[in-house]
């Protein structure tokens, strides 16, 4: 099901514009990824109808800290899919702004923001997201860096 939430879409579009200004040399395909997200126990309807979309306040810490986790593989996201009352499952297909990603950072579970790019020099320049070592998972740390565009409901 195609989703439409004007508020979340506007927030995502504003963040995308910032990324285009920040990375003038990158193509949109280098900044935006289409990824899967399982909401776990969170009812998808309460997510896609909210003014925040995927909300970092409800995130739990995992391998790369407290962030919003996405996978490029739906099979992996199935383990986090929402189970509906009719025994079907639901997961989101989202646009995520990966931007400049840190790959498998050593800070791990302590992250609440992307790591600093140059921790010894600049204390303000951060990566935009985090990816695992094989780049199959992306983590963002801001509500405006993702847009749940589709809800996929399926039988296992």
Provide a brief overview of the structure:
The chain has helices at 6-22, 28-31, 44-48, 74-78, and strands at 32-37, 61-62, 65-66, 68-71, 82-83, 89-97, 101-103, 129-131, 137-140, 146-154. By secondary structure, it is an alpha+beta fold. Strands 1, 5, 6 and 10 form a 4-stranded antiparallel beta sheet that branches.
Give an account of the 3D structure:
With 156 residues, this protein is α+β, with helices and mostly antiparallel strands. 20% of the residues lie in helices and 28% in strands. It has four helices and ten strands, in the order ααβαβββαββββββ. It has helices at 6-22, 28-31, 44-48, 74-78, and strands at 32-37, 61-62, 65-66, 68-71, 82-83, 89-97, 101-103, 129-131, 137-140, 146-154. Strands 1, 5, 6 and 10 form a four-stranded antiparallel β-sheet that branches. Strand 2 (61-62) and strand 3 (65-66) form a beta hairpin. The longest helix is centred in the first third of the chain and has 17 residues, at 6-22. It starts with 5 loop residues before the first helix and ends with a strand. The relative contact order is 0.25.
Quick tags:
globular, 4-stranded mixed beta sheet, 4-stranded antiparallel beta sheet, alpha+beta, single chain, 156 residues
List the helices and strands and how they pair.
Layout: H1 6-22, H2 28-31, E1 32-37, H3 44-48, E2 61-62, E3 65-66, E4 68-71, H4 74-78, E5 82-83, E6 89-97, E7 101-103, E8 129-131, E9 137-140, E10 146-154
Parallel strand pairs: 7-8
Antiparallel strand pairs: 1-6, 2-3, 4-9, 5-6, 6-10, 8-9
């Amino acid at each position: 099901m195609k989703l439409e939430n004007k508020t979340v879409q506007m927030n995502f579009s504003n963040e995308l514009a910032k990324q285009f200004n920040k990375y003038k040399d990158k193509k949109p395909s280098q900044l935006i990824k289409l990824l899967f997200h399982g909401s776990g126990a969170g009812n998808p309807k309460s997510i896609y109808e909210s003014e925040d979309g995927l909300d970092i306040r409800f995130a739990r810490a995992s391998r790369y800290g407290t962030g919003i986790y996405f996978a490029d593989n739906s099979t992996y996201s199935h383990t986090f899919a929402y189970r509906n009352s009719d025994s079907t499952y639901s997961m989101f297909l989202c646009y995520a702004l990966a931007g400049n990603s840190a790959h498998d950072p050593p800070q791990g579970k302590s992250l609440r923001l992307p790591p600093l790019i140059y921790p010894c020099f600049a204390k303000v320049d951060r990566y935009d997201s985090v990816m695992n070592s094989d780049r199959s998972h992306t983590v963002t740390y801001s509500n405006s860096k993702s847009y749940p565009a589709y809800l996929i409901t399926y039988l296992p």
